[in-house]
Amino acid sequence: MPVSQLGYLGLGVSDVDAWEEFATNVLGMEAIEHAEDGTVYLRMDEHHHRVALAPSGADDMLYVGWQTPNREQYEEVKVKLLAAGVEYSQATPEELANRHVSDMVKFEVSGLNMEVYVGPHVLFERPFSPGRPITGFKTGELGLGHVGLAPERAEDFERVVQILTECLGFKPSDAGADGVERFFHCNPREHTAVVSNRPSAKHIGHFMIELNSIDDVGRAYDIADEQGVWITQRLGRHTNDHMISFYMETPSGFGVEYGWGGRTVDDANWQVTKHDRFSMWGHRRPEKPETEEEREAVRKFLASPNAPPTPASR
Question: Which residues of 254-291 are buried (b: 16+ CB within 10 A; e: fewer)?
Answer without folding.
Answer: bbbbbbbbbeebeeeebeeeebeeebeeebeeeeeeee
